[in-house]
Every structure is written in structure tokens, then in C-alpha cells.
Write a structure and sequence with these properties.
mainly beta; 1 helix; two-stranded antiparallel sheet; 89 residues; single chain; 5 strands
Length: 89
């Protein structure tokens, strides 16, 4: 039996000028955690449903730091025990 989990991540650009947007941090549908001193990543949790992850985003929007910069949240779906071989193996 395979179970699905939902990883909630938030990306925040530390030195954005007013009105500018942070570059995308996704590559092939997955978060890319680059070593960039101007970008901060926070893992906000691993959830059993997408709805629970989205509810957590709603609660985060009321907290200091998140309320001032409400963008950058993403939910990633993963199947547990799902081993996928890279192509060519």
C-alpha cells in the first residue's frame, strides 16, 4: 500500500525591491534548494492531505514575517515507498 504525503515549503527572497518578484524556484515540478544567501527556504511541515497543507498556509498568513510577504508557498505531493528509477538504469 502506497501513501501520499504533502510537503509544504515556503521560499522567501530576502532582498526584494518593492514591486519586484522572486524568481521561480521550481525545476521539473520539484523545489530547487540552491545555495543563495538572498533566498530563504522553510519547510513548514509534512501533511497527510493537501487540504491540511493548504489550511497551514492560511494560518501562516496571520503570523509575523509571513503576513508581510504572503507569497512563495508551495505544496509538493509524494508517494511513500514509491521507488522510481532514473531513466537509463
Amino acid at each position: 500500500m502506497s501513501r501520499t504525503v504533502y510537503l509544504l515549503v515556503r521560499r522567501h527572497r530576502l532582498s526584494l525591491d518593492p514591486g519586484s518578484t522572486a524568481p521561480d524556484f521550481m525545476e521539473d515540478g520539484e523545489p530547487v534548494f540552491r545555495d543563495d544567501s538572498e533566498v530563504s527556504f522553510k519547510v513548514l511541515g509534512l501533511y497527510s492531505t493537501r487540504l491540511r497543507a493548504e489550511e497551514r498556509i492560511g494560518r501562516a498568513h496571520t503570523l509575523p514575517g509571513f503576513a508581510e510577504a504572503p507569497d512563495g508557498f508551495s505544496v509538493h505531493e509524494y508517494a511513500l515507498d514509491d521507488v522510481r528509477r532514473p531513466s537509463g538504469l
